[in-house]
Amino acid sequence: MALHDMSDLLDQLQSLSGCSYISDLHLARYAKEIRSAIKKMDPSSFPLGAWNSAIRYITAEDCQAQTQLDALRFLDFWLASREEKSKR
Predict the structure, then answer these.
(1) Residues 86, 87, 88: CA angle, nearest 5 degrees
(2) In whole angstroms, how far apart are CA 49 and each of 25, 33, 38, 61, 85?
(3) Are 39 and 7 in contact (CB under 8 A)?
(4) What secondary structure does DSSP assign to the chain, as a single string?
(5) pTM score, whole prediction
(6) Residues near 65 by Cβ (< 8 Å), separated by ≥ 6?
(7) Backbone phi, then psi, for 19, in 5-degree steps?
(8) Please, are residues 51 and 68 in contact by the beta-carbon 8 Å criterion?
């Protein structure tokens, strides 16, 4: 069954990454866990609009990915940069 909106996507990211709250998805210290979570996900399980909205929520950046896979890759790249910054 496909999930349909951004809140479902954020709920799944929260659950798979082990974050206590959805708002924890903003925190750099969880970047590694969130990256691990998105690698377990099928990007086509959510519509493109949900991915773009979730990215906007997590990153505070406007993402207009053209496909779900592009959105997942954008989020992974963004999280990787956050992960690196948190190590410094």
Answers:
(1) 95
(2) 18, 23, 16, 14, 28
(3) no
(4) ----SHHHHHHHHHHHHT-SSGGGGG-GGGHHHHHHHHHTS-GGGS-HHHHHHHHHHHHSS----SSHHHHHHHHHHHHHHHHHHHH-
(5) 0.87
(6) 48, 51, 52, 55, 71, 74
(7) -70, 145
(8) yes
User: How many other CB atoms are there within 10 angstroms of residue 81's CB atom?
Assistant: 11
Task: Assign 78 a pLDDT band (cuts: 50, 70, 90).
Answer: very high
Q: What is the pLDDT of residue 4?
A: 72
pLDDT at 59 over 70: yes
Q: Minimal CA–CA distance to 24: which of 9, 37, 14? A: 14
**Can you read off the two tokens belonging to residue 31?**
């970047």
